[in-house]
Design a protein that fits this description.
By secondary structure, this protein is α/β, with parallel strands linked by helices. It folds into four domains: 21-129, no CATH class; 135-255, Nucleotidyltransferase, domain 5; 271-448, 2-Layer Sandwich (Nucleotidyltransferase, domain 5); 462-508, 5' to 3' exonuclease, C-terminal subdomain (DNA polymerase, domain 1, Orthogonal Bundle). Helix content is 49%, strand content 15%. It has 17 helices and 13 strands. It has helices at residues 21-35, 53-56, 71-85, 89-105, 109-129, 181-192, 211-222, 234-254, 257-273, 328-331, 340-366, 380-392, 426-458, 467-477, 480-485, 488-495, 497-508; strands at residues 140-148, 151-160, 163-171, 201-203, 227-229, 281-290, 293-303, 306-307, 313-316, 373-377, 400-403, 409-411, 419-420. Helix 4 packs antiparallel against helix 5 (109-129) and helix 8 packs across helix 9 (257-273). The radius of gyration is 36 Å and the shape is elongated. Residues 131-135 and 324-345 have low confidence and may be disordered.
Length: 511
């Protein structure tokens, strides 16, 4: 027995599917204990001198030693194992009981006890597996559906005589754009019953498109009436919910659990913010400044939960946005500058207005792509400034959201009160990750801008020093302070005596 990832036409017997995979390994271990199926890959000739340890601990019949286990005995164990894996428990229990009575009649009491334990185990497993099944279920197929941004996963339970005898998985490899559950179920029914006869009843989690036409088509193919039902309560609804949970698990496995979690976060955002479409593309803006000095901005892009570093943009704020205390339309929305703190806030609003205006003016010229959601690092004031820029461009239809630091509250244009998501919510974690990335990118650019400003204000004013010599001095002495502390001999060894004298004279003239 082996665990297989794919079914192939190689003459082997395949059982399953088992989801998750550790169920397959547990089932395989159970067959070793119940029926003595070997777990090694040794070539069996029956000529081995003695059995291995697996035989001693009663997990293998030892077909490698013909005097211990004949080919006929091992073939019988293989047949019992196949019955077990096929779910034919009634036939299996009947066969095991017959062998147990025969062993007891021949006074092979140890073998009879092992067979008795096997019967009890099979019956216990059967009762546990069929706890959702009753004879009232009869013959029917039960569908579970998980429709997500990454694609579709469908689980089908085939119930016969009240028992789930087989489970079939259907799915797509790509996203299904614009399709609802009804349309997906209609396509799934047509695909599934193209080569199968439909049972009298088919239970679905929701109403399919063209239900009457589907029932007519299925009835003609089956030669008897077929009904499509959507159970609302009771055991039948419980089985539909179980199939749906299996479909959700298959969805995560098929499309990778991390990716599925990202799409779940996007679905939550769409619901919470009442967005017309899934926010697959999110653009986030952040401002970095110290008291209005060297103000810069960053814009990062997240698509389908993944950061697109190649589309990041950084901006130097020019101060020509037209928003601020000079803008009479903005005075009522933005506090008057009564202090340096208010001036700093005013600069922040104007910077957001400018960078949003510049970004989407460029996108209009290029023809897109436009984001499904614009994320602004800030509160209501920053959000108002962003919308003012969008309205100037005729893009007020774009949805923007502000996220305030510390409180982690979401501000929207249409609601007076902010939206608070649970601390561990995947949607909030996604927004925080995007916001933090925008902040990191802005701070890095701001530090570089400050460093370039400091260098320009000092070394670039020294006669005879250009970019190459400036870089050489900083590399050699580590910093501007190191250059200031260097002696004439040290400077001369790097840039020559004439430039060394110029550097010393320049710093001597400055306080």
């Amino acid at each position: 027995m082996l665990v297989a990832r794919h079914v192939e036409r190689d003459g082997s017997f395949y059982a399953g599917p088992f989801l998750p995979a550790h169920f397959a390994r547990k089932t395989m271990a159970l067959t070793h204990r119940l029926f003595g199926i070997r777990s090694c890959n040794e070539v069996i000739t029956g000529k081995r001198g003695r059995p291995c340890l697996e035989y001693d601990i009663k997990r293998c019949m030892a077909p490698c030693v013909e005097t211990v286990c004949s080919p006929g005995e091992y073939a019988s164990a293989v047949k019992l194992t196949q019955l077990f894996l096929e779910g034919k428990n009634d036939e299996l229990v009947k066969t095991l009981n017959a062998r147990m009575l025969d062993a007891a009649g021949s006074e092979r009491f140890e073998e009879a006890a092992q067979l008795r334990d096997a019967v009890r185990t099979v019956q216990a497993l059967h009762d546990r597996q069929q706890k959702m099944a009753t004879t009232a279920f009869g013959h029917r197929d039960v569908f579970g559906l998980k429709l997500g941004p990454a694609g579709v996963a469908i689980q089908v339970f085939q119930v016969r005589s009240g028992r789930v005898v087989e489970r079939v998985e259907l799915g797509t490899q790509d996203a299904v754009v614009g399709a609802g559950e009804g349309e997906v179920l209609e396509a799934a029914l047509q695909q599934f019953y193209e080569l199968r006869a439909a049972p009298p009843e088919i239970h679905l989690p929701s109403e399919p498109d063209q239900r009457d036409a589907l029932e007519t088509w299925l009835s003609e193919r089956a030669g008897s009436r077929v009904r499509i039902l959507v159970p609302q309560r009771g055991e039948k609804r419980g089985l539909v919910d179980l199939a749906t949970r299996n479909a959700a698990l298959a969805y995560q496995i098929r499309f990778n659990q991390a990716t599925a979690a990202q799409y779940d976060a996007l679905e939550t955002l769409q619901a919470v913010l009442a967005l017309p479409a899934l926010p697959r593309r999110i653009e986030c803006f952040d401002i970095s400044t110290i008291q209005g000095s060297e103000t810069v901005a960053s814009m990062v892009v997240c698509e389908d939960g993944r950061m697109r570093r190649g589309e990041y943009r950084k901006y130097r704020i020019r101060g020509d946005s037209g928003l601020g205390i000079r803008d009479s339309t903005a005075k009522s929305q933005i506090p008057n500058p009564e202090s340096r703190q208010n001036e700093s806030r005013q600069d922040d609003f104007a910077a957001i207005h400018e960078v949003v205006l510049r970004r989407y003016r460029k996108l209009l010229e290029q023809g897109g792509p436009f984001p499904d959601l614009v994320l602004i690092d800030g509160g209501k004031g920053q959000l108002t400034a962003a919308y003012a820029a969008l309205e100037e461009l005729g893009l007020a239809n774009l949805v923007a959201v502000g996220i305030a630091k510390k409180e982690e509250l979401l501000y929207t244009r249409d609601r007076m009160d902010p939206i608070a998501l649970a601390p561990g919510d995947q949607a909030l974690l996604l927004i925080e990750r995007i916001r933090d990335e925008a902040h990191r990118f802005a701070v890095t650019f701001h530090r570089r801008a400050r460093a370039m400003r400091d260098l320009r204000s000092e070394l670039d004013h020294v006669p005879g020093i250009g970019p190459r010599r400036r870089r050489t001095l900083l590399t050699t002495f580590g910093s501007l302070a190191g250059v200031r502390r260097a002696t004439r001999e040290e400077l001369a060894s790097v840039v020559g005596a004439r430039v060394a004298d110029a550097v010393l004279a320049f710093f001597a003239s400055r306080p």
